[in-house]
Specification:
Oligomer: single chain
Helix content: 10-25%
Number of domains: 3
CATH superfamily of the largest domain: Alpha/Beta hydrolase fold, catalytic domain
Shape: globular
CATH class of the largest domain: Alpha Beta
Distance between the termini: 65 Å
Number of helices: 12
């Protein structure tokens, strides 16, 4: 159906239908930021012949100069981004139409009236929310993960439109209506194989907190000879990270000879997809060979309504994920697959989010894990929360002077070229979701680290429009989630349990400036005594994000070798670290 030609019909719908309640982000509604004139109205239709349910959620309007890829995949932090606007919607019934609010918050252009004249493409997506009645008494509307790992543009059940052409002239969007006729389909569950098993477990702790059934999942890579050695019990190699669809970095067949090479924009390497397949196949050959350590390699799934994973710690907003994983789920996995089930026999590793989590669970549960390998971790010292010192800076977006304010950088390449500011990143998230509901990086940090606000949503570490930092929230973050501070504060209590278990790795040109926090943490670790920390900190020269301590390979290769690298590294030291009478033989065959 040609929606551009349905102008008269659409305006009739506006007049005759009952319009649902539309709400907008609270923070940006300062008078100076509102558009100064109304634009032509874009009507969005929710066709009753396609759907029946009443909806709450976020309406995201996307505008681009091209449609080489769908617009819903074009919103990003750098100069290649499309334009986005976001609007909250409540109680939207099938068959009703609504008018997209002209004052909705936008990124990178904040106001619709400031759009540059021209012809563009337009697409609209509706990100669905569900109602949660938490045990703390708050009722919230949040997006439930539906098997995609909290990705607003891929979430099954989300509605979206076809792409249409539009004109912008004199600040007006010259179009009339668009209909959400498309729906993202469900995602198929991965299938078990000889080596990889997929399990889920309902968490009692999390289900009680969220007021509905909450499940934790895992992909377990069984060691070679698992069935042939029923007497063996195995250590656990637990990799933390973002939501894994399956066990990544694993392939039992040689690379596809017909695979067309693809260029990696990030690493500037041609044929990177072929390299990925070869590395995955090489790992399989190592794993199934005679000399690789026999362990249970585990990737866990623990998405929350705020992000693709929970950060593996207890949190006022996310709930008791740390306890649920450590005391419910990990023992469950060990029971299912003959794990040793003792703290010394579990080691954790990961990069980025997974790097922070690896260190966090080692810090929060000192005796439940035997060692951690934390690569390119998210900020582990909040004096360097990327390029913000949340304890001393007044503003996150600007370095303020008497006569000039300088934008704080958010992302760089390995030569230091900046392509996004911290303000850009936060404004993009504001388009995707209000009240911390974007499912993106800065919002999940607040959901994990912040106390609950009066409205039930996470308290802001800084005002998302102005960047002004809240010192009370910063003080809460420090005592509960600043890992370097906690290690220093509690060394007298847990130093013996942490000794020799902390290993940190980071590229000195990390794209998100995460190396700055590692420098500060290293100073703290080196200053500890009685006992000394006896761990490791290492840096990669000009290495970008996800560098994991491998000095022998470029970053685009080493990032594909987390499993083989850290499992073998742990195996080389466990004889010295394991307690007396530990099982060091049944799994070594």
């Amino acid at each position: 159906m040609n929606h551009i030609n349905c102008i008269l019909l659409c305006f009739a719908i506006i007049l005759l239908s009952c319009t649902p309640k539309a709400t907008e982000l609270t923070a940006p509604q300062h008078t100076s930021e509102k558009p100064q004139k109304a634009i032509s109205q874009l009507v969005i239709k929710y066709p009753a012949d396609h759907y029946q349910e009443k909806l709450d959620g976020r309406m995201i309007l996307l505008i681009s100069e091209h449609k080489d890829i769908e617009l819903r995949f074009q919103l990003r932090d750098d100069e290649k981004t499309c334009q986005g606007f976001g609007m909250d919607v409540e109680d939207w019934a099938a068959g009703e139409s609504l008018v997209f609010d002209a004052e909705s918050f936008g990124y990178p252009t904040m106001n619709m009236n400031d759009l540059v004249d021209g012809q563009y493409y337009l697409q609209v997506l509706f990100h669905k929310y569900e109602t949660f009645k938490r045990s703390d008494g708050h009722t919230l509307k949040l997006p439930m993960d539906r098997g995609e790992g909290q990705q607003w543009n891929r979430a099954p059940g989300n509605l979206y439109s076809e792409i249409i052409k539009v004109n912008v002239k004199n600040g007006e969007l010259l179009t009339s209506a668009i209909s959400l006729t498309k729906k993202i389909p469900p995602i198929a569950e991965p299938k078990d194989t000889k080596y990889i098993k997929h399990i889920k477990m309902k968490s009692k702790l999390l289900s009680e907190f969220w007021g509905r059934d909450i499940y934790l999942g895992a992909h377990v890579l069984l060691p070679e000879g698992f069935d042939e050695h029923p007497e063996a019990k195995y250590p656990m190699a637990l990799m933390h990270g973002h939501f894994p669809r399956d066990f990544s970095g694993w392939r039992t067949n040689p690379p596809d000879p017909d695979l067309q090479p693809e260029y990696s924009e990030r690493f500037q390497v041609d044929g990177y997809n072929q390299i990925v397949q070869q590395e995955a196949y090489d790992f399989y050959k190592l794993w199934s060979g005679p000399d690789f350590p026999r362990v249970l390699a585990v990737l866990i799934q623990h998405p929350t309504p705020y992000y693709d994973d929970s950060y593996a710690v207890n949190s006022e907003n996310n709930g008791p994920y740390g306890d649920a994983l450590t005391y419910e789920f990990i023992p469950y996995i060990e029971d299912q697959f003959r794990g040793i089930g003792e703290g010394w026999s579990r080691f954790v590793y990961g990069g980025s989010t997974g790097g922070w989590e690896a260190l966090a669970v080692q810090v929060k549960y000192p005796t439940e894990y035997g060692t951690c390998y934390a690569a390119c971790p998210d900020p582990i010292d909040f004096r360097a929360y990327c390029l913000v010192n949340i304890y001393e800076d007044e503003n996150a977006y600007y370095k303020k002077g008497t006569f000039k304010n300088t934008l704080v950088a958010g992302h760089r390449d390995y030569l230091g070229n900046i392509d996004a500011s911290l303000k850009d990143m936060n404004y993009r998230e504001l388009v995707i979701g209000s009240k911390g509901r974007s499912g993106q990086q800065w919002d999940i940090w607040e959901a994990v680290y912040s106390p609950v606000g009066k409205d039930g949503y996470p308290m802001r570490i800084w005002d998302r429009l102005s960047g002004e930092i809240n010192p009370e929230v910063a003080a809460y973050w420090k005592e509960n989630y600043d890992l370097a501070h906690i290690i220093k504060r509690d060394w007298d209590k847990h130093g013996d349990d942490w000794r020799g278990k902390i290993h940190l790795y980071c590229g000195d040109m990390d794209n998100y400036y995460l190396n700055n926090a590692v420098y500060l943490a290293e100073d703290i670790l080196e200053g500890l005594n009685d006992p000394a920390y006896e761990g490791e900190v290492d840096y990669g020269d000009r290495a970008e994000h996800c560098w994991n301590g491998d000095q022998s390979e470029p970053n685009h290769i080493s990032r594909l070798r987390y499993h083989r690298m850290f499992i073998q590294k742990w195996n080389e030291t466990i004889d010295e670290k394991a307690p007396v009478c530990a099982d060091l033989t049944s799994w070594r065959y």
